[in-house]
Amino acid sequence: MLTFLAIAVLGLILAPFVAVQIQERIFRHRAEQLLADMRALMTHKAKLTEIQAVFKRWHPSEEHCESYQCWFRSDISYGPFTRFLDYRSVPDIAALQGLGQPKLWLIPFRMYGGRRAHVRARAYVERGVLYGIDYQIDLEVSALPEDYSSVKETQQQYILSASAGYAWRFSIPADWHGLTLHPDYLIAEGAPPAGEVRSPDIFAEFGPGAGPGDVSRLANFDFSCLTRLVACRKPEDLMPEAAAQFAREEPELAQLRKEQVCSADMLALMARDAGRVAVVEVMESRTEHLGGWGVVPVPVVRMIQDFEPASDWRIGQTHELVILDAGPQSPGPHLPAEVRPGNRFILLAESGLHYRWVETYHCGIVLLNPANLELVQKAIAGNPPPGNP
Fold first, then answer.
1. 302 with 339: CB under 8 angstroms?
2. CB 310 within 8 A of CB 355
3. How far apart are CA 87 and CA 116, in angstroms?
């Protein structure tokens, strides 16, 4: 009788642990299958019909088409009372939150080896052509004292994130994070600014020219993080290949950002990726108080010639220009020598934080001469929007 009771008690203790482990492995398998589908869509730049078919299999939490644009999103989550959330919309991180306010049911769940996780896949299609796709894992991790350099000491749990995605063009800030080394993909790890607390993350982003080998190698997640008893704690645990390459390259890239080396390769990248490319004339130079940046120089420029048509900035119109340093990504105290009233130059820029601003970096202020005009025009011609000849 005692033996029977001991076995029964042991069974009651082990049953929840076994149930948690089985459910985690089911979730891991589904997460692997969802990534395989997203990687396939990335590598051959899938069309609308194939994207619709793939997301239909995953019961999209969002599927919206209007005019010539379509958005798709699928979510799967794991954890008590968030049972496979294929059929309803889940906030990116909110599905995992409750951090700092633990719920009673989480105590036995975590005691038996469970940890909440959320996987999201999204795609954006324009005129039937894939413009963007991303896949992201958010994994709940119990904080240890050694984690307090990146998370608040009061947090019992934090979110470890990793993502991979395709986009039809990069942004100018991305050009300073690895594209001079490999122009068709970039890797970045979350590095909170001084004084800011943020959970660790890593991502890889691929452009239209990225090869299938690079996509397969770098968009490679270690799904054992979803099932192992000893939790993954760092970005390199979730994306080991991408993290290893980032560690090798970042020292060189950090130095280039610090020195702001405006090589021909950098100018070509910025011209390729800029949302606005134009010849502008400086109308006046003044200073303004811009939020946390304080008082900074903000010249006013007028568009003379447009190479990359922008709907909200036309020839003859003026805009304020914010020029950032590539390292800290904040305005410097002094303007480049070319930015003086009456002077004209080639501007490689992005949209600013407000409609009246445009943003660029020091290398986005390009001397106006025939050689630079040719370089800029070739870079733009070599990177037409998807679906355009």
1. no
2. no
3. 18
Q: How far is CA 114 from CA 76, 140, 316, in A?
A: 16, 10, 61
Report the top-level CATH class of 264-381: mainly beta
How far is residue 186's CA from residue 305's CA, in Å, rounded to a whole number? Answer: 31
Which range among 17-21, 251-255, 303-307, 320-324 shows the weakest confidence by mean pLDDT?
17-21
* CB within 8 Å of 260: residues ≥ 6 apart: 325, 326, 327, 361, 362, 363
- How many C-beta atoms lie closer than 10 Å to residue 62's C-beta? 12
Q: For residue 353, what are the contacts with CB-CB under 8 A and spacing of at least 6?
A: 359
Give the amino acid at 222: D
Number of H helices, E strands in the chain: 9, 13
Residue type, 300: V
Domain assignments of the chain as residue spans, ordered by start: 12-256, 264-381
User: Using an 8 Å Cβ cutoff, are 340 and 282 in contact?
Assistant: yes
Identify the residue whose tokens are 């939490």. Answer: 61
d(CA 363, CA 266): 8
Q: What is the pTM of this model?
A: 0.81
**Edge-first strand listing for the sheet containing 185-189:** 62-66, 69-78, 117-126, 129-142, 157-167, 201-206, 185-189
d(CA 364, CA 267) in angstroms, rounded, equals 7
Mean pLDDT of the chain: 81
Rounded to whole angstroms, the Cα distance separating 197 from 320 reads 32
With beta carbons less than 8 A apart as the criterion, state whether 268 and 183 touch: no
Task: Quote the tokens at residue 271.
Answer: 């011209």
